[in-house]
């Protein structure tokens, strides 16, 4: 009889240990993604690679206005139709953002970035042989746009994952790469077009784009233990298909965020496409007009570094800076009808570059802050897809110009959209506060439930039969009287206050240990240890 009792208590002890191990493993799996990223080290190499892609991709798309004048002369097409080529290319960067995020999770950032650079090269070199403007919609609009998305998106996501306290500054450096591309490539392409023609200029640029292939190999993935929820735990329903998890759209903060930024970005690409034509209509020579974009590039470069640096501080309200930047951009667009000279247009371009960079540099940072590391790839992809509304801006401005012979309305309407977007952003803090409070309530309840089930062996709760199997553990109610303390060794103790009366036994396998059985446990444990 004594041997049977010892065997029963020993089996119960082993079962209890295994169940506690399962709980611990499950808890570690849920919180392991909270381990801090490197915040430096190889992350700076990732920043350099992402800056290179931003310089090549953003710079090339911002230089489309230089090519537009040559395309209008070559194909004799309307301004609105020609503007659609650059707009589609830029729009596909945004539209394929969710696809890029999904491919990154499945195949890794290196493969996606290298593949994107190759597609972009194929699209650019194909565009140089186009003899009909319709072909450019396929080569430049589609291929270059998709390749740009695959090459550009991984860098933004990887920088956000590699940094924590320095995330704003690192992102600012990447955005500064894009601003440097605007500054440099407008001048380079203008020189190449003037000396070699626009077709040869594109072929020469293909050789420069090859740098993006080598830069893609720098996106070394983080250790899986750091962010398993991003790499391994991405869950989608089969009905949601290949692209992304649509449950993110149930988040009211995310919905408001992408809605506001979608409105703000409607007019983003208009100056890059139509500024050269606008300056030419005002009597400014094509040799002087590029200085407008030079001012934009320089101010944008400095702005990216400035906002990236100051936004590292915890005392800075990043959302407010973003909101103010969007509002100022809207005001500048509203003032474009009063800009009639080269000096005023350079001032417009300089201020636009400064404030727009203050908005643009904070997009991935705020997306990470609002959504977190686990949802960052999908959230960033969706945000880019919604911001594809910017591809409608240049055709809209071109259509207004074809109808009225003026760009004034084409700039004023996007300006009103930006001012409205700034107003929408003002509602995010209140929604965020409500969402955080709800999350705290869920976390508090979850912690109480977890800690109330991890009871050290030999505690009085076990002797009363309240926590003898998984069935009863799951059925224990969590009350507001639950207290969590630590003993001298820092271990959790007193995890759950016991009811004044023993809980009834709901399962026939519940075990009640008498004092004699508890002594047997110590005897069996001692025998096992000595063996």
Polypeptide structure, described:
- GO terms for molecular function: monocarboxylic acid transmembrane transporter activity.
- This is Monocarboxylate transporter 10-like.
- InterPro entries: MFS (IPR011701), MFS_dom (IPR020846), MFS_trans_sf (IPR036259), Proton-linked_MCT (IPR050327).
- This protein is mainly α and 531 residues long.
- It has helices at 2-31, 42-62, 64-75, 79-95, 97-107, 109-127, 133-162, 167-196, 198-209, 211-216, 228-231, 252-264, 270-281, 290-310, 318-334, 342-360, 363-371, 376-386, 393-404, 408-425, 428-453, 460-463, 470-475, 515-530, and strands spanning 485-486, 492-493.
- The protein has a two-stranded antiparallel sheet.
- The longest helix has 30 residues, at 2-31.
- The relative contact order is 0.13.
- The model is unreliable at 18-35, 225-244 and 457-512 (pLDDT under 50).
Structural class: mainly alpha
Per DSSP E runs of 2 or more residues, the count of β-strands stands at 2
Query: If classified by CATH, what would the architecture of the domain at 31-220 and 264-426 be?
Result: Up-down Bundle
Strand order of the largest sheet: 1-2
Low-confidence stretches: 18-35, 225-244, 457-512
CATH superfamily of the domain at 31-220 and 264-426: MFS general substrate transporter like domains
> Number of helix segments?
24
What is the name of the CATH topology of the domain at 31-220 and 264-426? Growth Hormone, Chain: A
**Percent range for helical residues?**
over 70%
Task: Tell me about the largest β-sheet.
Answer: 2 strands, antiparallel
Write down the overall mean pLDDT: 75
Distance between the termini: 23 Å
Shape: globular
Order of helices and strands: HHHHHHHHHHHHHHHHHHHHHHHEEH
């Amino acid at each position: 009889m004594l041997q049977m009792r010892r065997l029963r208590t020993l089996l119960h002890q082993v079962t209890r240990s295994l169940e506690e191990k399962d709980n611990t493993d499950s808890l570690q799996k849920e919180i392991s993604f909270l381990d801090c990223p490197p915040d430096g080290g190889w992350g700076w190499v990732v920043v350099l690679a992402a800056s290179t892609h931003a310089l090549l991709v953003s710079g090339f798309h911002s230089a489309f206005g230089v090519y537009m004048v040559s395309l209008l002369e070559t194909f004799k097409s309307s301004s609105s139709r020609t503007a659609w080529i650059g707009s589609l290319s830029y729009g596909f960067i945004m539209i394929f953002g969710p696809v890029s995020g999904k491919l990154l999770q499945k195949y890794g950032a290196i493969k996606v970035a290298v593949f994107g650079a190759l597609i972009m090269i194929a699209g650019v070199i194909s565009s140089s042989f186009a003899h009909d403007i319709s072909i450019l919609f396929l080569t430049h609009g589609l291929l270059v746009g998709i390749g740009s998305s695959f090459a550009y998106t991984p860098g933004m996501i990887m920088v956000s994952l590699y940094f924590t306290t320095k995330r704003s500054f690192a992102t600012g450096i990447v955005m500064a790469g894009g601003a440097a591309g605007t500054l440099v490539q407008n001048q380079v392409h203008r020189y190449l077009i003037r000396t070699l023609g626009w077709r040869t200029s594109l072929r020469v640029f293909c050789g420069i784009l090859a740098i993006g292939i080598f830069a893609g190999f720098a996106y070394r993935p983080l250790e899986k233990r750091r962010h398993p929820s991003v790499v391994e735990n991405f869950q989608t329903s089969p009905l949601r298909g290949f692209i992304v998890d649509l449950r993110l759209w149930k988040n009211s903060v995310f919905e408001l965020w992408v809605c506001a930024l979608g409105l703000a970005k409607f007019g983003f690409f208009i100056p890059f496409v139509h500024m050269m034509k606008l300056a030419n209509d005002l009597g400014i020579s094509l040799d002087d007009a590029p200085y407008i974009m030079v001012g934009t590039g320089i101010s944008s470069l400095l702005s990216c570094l400035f906002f990236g640096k100051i936004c590292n501080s915890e005392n800075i309200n990043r959302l407010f800076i973003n909101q103010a930047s969007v509002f100022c951009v809207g005001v500048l667009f509203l003032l474009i009808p009063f800009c009639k000279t080269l000096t005023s247009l350079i001032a417009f371009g300089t201020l636009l570059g400064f404030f727009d960079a203050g908005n643009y540099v904070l997009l991935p940072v705020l997306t990470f802050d609002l959504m977190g590391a686990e949802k960052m790839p999908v959230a960033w992809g969706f945000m880019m897809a919604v911001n594809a509304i910017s591809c409608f801006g240049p055709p809209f401005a071109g259509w207004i110009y074809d109808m009225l012979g003026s760009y004034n309305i084409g700039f004023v309407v996007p300006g009103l959209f930006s001012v409205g977007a700034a107003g929408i952003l003002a509602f995010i803090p209140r929604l965020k506060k409500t969402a955080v409070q709800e999350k705290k309530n869920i976390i508090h309840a979850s912690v109480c439930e977890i800690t109330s089930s991890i009871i050290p062996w030999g505690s009085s709760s076990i002797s009363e039969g309240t926590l003898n199997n998984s069935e009863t553990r799951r059925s224990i109610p969590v009350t507001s009287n639950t207290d969590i303390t630590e003993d001298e060794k820092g271990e959790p103790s007193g995890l759950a206050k016991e009811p004044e009366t023993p809980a009834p036994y709901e399962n026939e396998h519940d075990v009640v240990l008498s004092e004699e059985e508890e002594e047997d446990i110590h005897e069996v444990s001692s025998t096992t240890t000595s063996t």
